[in-house]
Structure formats: structure tokens, C-alpha cells
Specification:
about 475 residues, Ribonucleotide Reductase, subunit A, two-stranded antiparallel ribbon, about 45% helix, binds fe (ii) ion
């Protein structure tokens, strides 16, 4: 059992006190992190007391504490899931060998790259969301936003710990650069495209936590399979926190659907914009946008990098151990989409080369679950259902880059695209309608008019609890 040092300057269960050099290095990074949070973390209500969950342990009998804290006093700590004794590698060329407790020299740069790319997304999303507290539709929602923000900050700590502990001087430099790149910065942007887009309104925030955080879930889940045990244990614990982020997205969009239906019924119309709601076709456009941008994050359909990572044992598949195959995938085949001569086709490739597509498939299946729930509400009310667009729609990475595919999966001409794009993706008018609904509601229990209240509060507290003391 690892012991938790909760009172240390940096709370941890990795025995920081037993490694003075590392402790000093991380304590030197800490003020840089605090300065970054001050400059680029939440821009409003930053000193108010927020009812937050703080990770304090990793065990089965409770790992979190709930209390009112001012965010700058949040205890960002380093927590790895318990080490599994005698863990062996589940896939790739080293399958069956003991998991690594140190970084093998031959995989050092690949592992470092994966950790940096994952780490970079964590502070990026905090930056993207920094102005949202000004327009929170309720104190309950503001609290959830801040919860997501502080935990993304903690996830940055998780990756920075690995960089400092296992990657020497290079790792320390990478850790500093995590705070120097900024979302949307022209000169020094975040690494991945979706993390340089703004999150300008709360509908975008709910869509982001539903679709883009879910990419994070799948990336973390495949890194949890890693032969590099400290990375595996870090991701395992991060996934516990991540579940709440998915919940914020799924319940957030669900509450918008619910409110839209109420307004449709009350006013006997599909157009609820005059009544301060969000039309279903606008919601569909936001889904089309956020789904397609997030699908790009999984990369091209076939990838030598992904194949190499898998063969090396450093990044597996979602739930690798539950799969019934040889876990090497060199002689197993599957089809991947292929754009050829203006048509959507397929080609057969080894599963090893198609790992990005396999992870994207798992992700899409998971995305569909939320739509199924929302569609049950819509079906009960006799309204049209919401749909995920075809994977080829509005893609910027892989075989569909620079092509035109309709949401229902037809290869179309540029003219047809241009004639319809305003019906498929949010227009400036759509965005300004959503923007017009963004008013901060800061009275306990009160909700903005464009979404329904949640079905229950956080941690058994009532919905009208003072989640943020304003
Ligand atoms: Fe995260
Ligand atoms: Fe997250």
C-alpha cells in the first residue's frame, strides 16, 4: 500500500519526501503553476468559496473530500492508483513480461511524447473555459465548471510528475513548456487542434465535456494499459475524476433537450428561439461540429506511430485485457474507411495499423449512448431524433480531409456542400443566438431559461445549495 502524505506542500502518495531532489524540482515548478492558474485559469469568481471535490486518497473506501474552498487554495496533488503486484504486459511484442517500473531507453522518446501530448490538453481546456464563470446558468453549473477546471489542473500535475520523475532534464523542460504554450496562441499554441478552439458559451462547454473530454477518456484508457506502470497507474486514477466531466456534458446537453421540449410543448412550436430556448436543429449543428472536431483527435485511420506504440507496449486498446484475441494484431485484419475517386469506400488493413480507427470506433459507440438517452426524451414528445454525423463529415484529419461528406454519409460535390453547410454546422447567427442566452445566474437554485434544472445536486446536497458563495 502506498501511503498518502496529505499535509505535504504537494499532497502525494508517491513518497515525494523520500526523494529530495525530485521534491525540490516539483516545489520549484509549483509557483509557476500557481502563476499560470492566476493568469489563465478562471477569470471571474476566482476567489469565491466553491464546493469542490478534492482527491485525497486512491483507495476503495473513498478517495475524495467535499468542502468549500477558494480555488487558489485547492490542494493539487499527485496520486497514482495502487500498484498491482506482479503486473505483466498485456499486449505487443513484450506481452507476458513484467511491467516496467522505469522507462526503457529504447522507448524513452515515444513515451515522453505521449505524456507531453496528453499533458498539454489538460491546461489547454482550462484556458479555453476561463471566461465561462461570468455567464454560468446557475451556481450548480458554475461549481461543476470549476470542478472540471481544478481537476484538469491536477491532471497536468499528474503528467508533470511523470516528466520530472522519469525523464530528467528533458522532462523538466517539457513541464515548463506546458505552461508556456497557450490555447489559441498564434506563436505558441497548444499541440492539438481542438484545444485551440474557443469554448465561447455554455452549450459549447457541455458539448466539449461530452465529446472532447470523452476523447480524453479513451486516450487515458488506452494509456492505462501501458507497460510503463507509473503511467498506467496515473491514468487509472485520472479516469476516476474524468467520469464526472463526462457527466457534466451528458447531463448538461440532456437538460437543454429537456428545456427545449418543455418550451416546444408550452408554445406549440418547433421554434423556441423567441422564448429564450435552443432549437433542436441548432443542437444538432453543435453536435455535428463538436463530434467531428473530436473525431479528428484520434488521428488518421491507419498509423505507423500507433502500431509502433502498440507493438512496444506503451499504448494499448480500450479495455485491452477484455478482448479475446492474440493482443499482437499482426495477422488480424479489419476494414477502414477510404476516400477514393470521390467515393467513400473501404480497404482492408492489419488491425495493428488501424488502432486509431479502432479507438475511434469505441469512442463513437460510447458517444451514441448519450444520444440514445436524449432521443428517448425526444421520442416521448414525438420530436425528431438527434444523430451523430457520419465519420467522414467535416473531418480535417485522415482520409476524409479536404473531402465533402454529408452528415448522412454521402459523398457530395462542393456545390452541394456550400448550399447546405449552414444547415449542418453552426452559423454566426446560431452562435449569436446562443450567446444572447448567456447570462450569469448567481442565486442559489435559480437556472437560466434555456436549460432545465439538474435532477439532483452534487454529493447529496440540494439543488439550491450555495455551491459557490457569491
Ligand atoms: Fe483531464
Ligand atoms: Fe476532463
Amino acid at each position: 500500500m502506498s501511503t498518502v502524505d496529505i499535509d505535504a506542500k504537494i499532497p502525494n502518495n508517491v513518497d515525494l519526501a523520500g526523494d529530495r531532489r525530485l521534491q525540490r524540482a516539483l516545489e520549484a515548478w509549483q509557483p509557476k503553476f500557481v502563476r499560470w492558474w492566476e493568469d489563465l485559469g478562471p477569470s471571474a469568481f476566482k476567489r469565491n468559496e466553491v464546493y469542490l471535490r478534492t482527491a485525497i486518497d486512491v483507495g476503495r473506501d473513498g478517495w475524495a473530500n467535499f468542502d468549500h474552498v477558494e480555488m487558489p487554495d485547492y490542494r493539487w496533488g499527485i496520486f497514482l492508483a495502487e500498484q498491482e503486484p506482479d503486473r505483466t504486459i498485456a499486449f505487443g511484442d513484450h506481452k507476458g513480461e513484467a511491467a516496467w517500473q522505469e522507462v526503457p531507453g529504447e522507448y524513452r522518446s515515444d513515451l515522453q511524447r505521449l505524456i507531453v501530448v496528453q499533458g498539454d490538453t489538460e491546461p489547454a481546456s482550462v484556458e479555453q473555459q476561463r471566461h465561462l464563470s461570468l455567464t454560468a446558468p446557475s451556481l450548480y453549473d458554475m461549481r461543476n465548471l470549476f470542478q472540471v477546471n481544478v481537476e484538469e489542473g491536477r491532471h497536468l500535475w499528474a503528467m508533470v510528475y511523470l516528466l520530472h520523475r522519469y525523464f530528467g532534464r528533458d522532462g523538466r523542460e517539457e513541464a515548463d513548456e506546458m505552461l508556456e504554450r497557450h490555447s489559441g496562441d498564434d506563436d505558441n499554441p497548444r499541440i492539438l487542434g481542438a484545444f485551440n478552439e474557443e469554448t465561447p458559451d455554455w452549450l459549447s462547454f457541455f458539448m466539449f465535456t461530452y465529446f472532447t473530454d470523452r476523447d480524453g477518456k479513451y486516450q487515458l484508457a488506452s494509456l492505462r494499459e501501458s507497460a510503463f506502470d507509473p503511467l498506467s497507474r496515473t491514468c487509472d486514477f485520472m479516469l476516476k475524476e474524468e467520469a464526472h466531466h463526462m457527466f457534466v456534458g451528458a447531463s448538461g446537453v440532456g437538460r437543454v433537450v429537456q428545456r427545449t421540449l418543455e418550451l416546444m410543448l408550452e408554445h406549440d412550436t418547433d421554434d423556441v428561439h423567441p422564448y429564450g430556448g435552443i432549437n433542436l436543429d441548432l443542437l444538432q449543428k453543435y453536435i455535428n461540429f463538436h463530434f467531428s472536431v473530436s473525431a479528428d483527435l484520434f488521428g488518421a485511420e491507419t498509423s505507423t506511430n500507433a502500431a509502433n506504440y502498440y507493438a512496444a507496449g506503451i499504448k494499448g486498446r480500450f479495455q485491452e485485457e477484455k478482448r479475446d484475441d492474440d493482443h499482437q494484431l499482426k495477422t488480424a485484419y479489419r476494414n477502414v474507411p477510404l476516400w477514393e475517386d470521390g467515393q467513400i469506400g473501404e480497404r482492408e488493413v492489419t488491425q495493428l495499423s488501424a488502432l486509431n480507427e479502432t479507438l475511434r470506433d469505441d469512442y463513437i459507440e460510447d458517444c451514441q449512448k448519450g444520444l440514445d438517452r436524449w432521443n428517448r426524451m425526444l421520442a416521448d414528445a414525438g420530436a425528431n431524433e438527434l444523430r451523430l454525423p457520419h465519420t467522414g463529415f467535416h473531418r480535417d484529419v485522415g482520409t476524409f480531409r479536404d473531402t465533402h461528406v454529408s452528415p448522412d454519409g454521402r459523398a457530395i460535390s462542393e456545390d452541394e456542400w456550400n448550399a447546405n453547410v449552414d444547415a449542418w454546422l453552426p452559423t454566426a447567427d446560431d452562435r449569436s443566438h446562443v450567446q444572447s442566452l448567456q447570462v450569469g445566474v448567481n442565486e442559489p437554485g435559480k437556472m437560466a431559461g434555456w436549460l432545465a434544472p439538474p435532477s439532483r445536486g452534487i454529493h447529496q446536497k440540494p439543488i439550491d445549495y450555495d455551491y459557490v458563495k457569491v
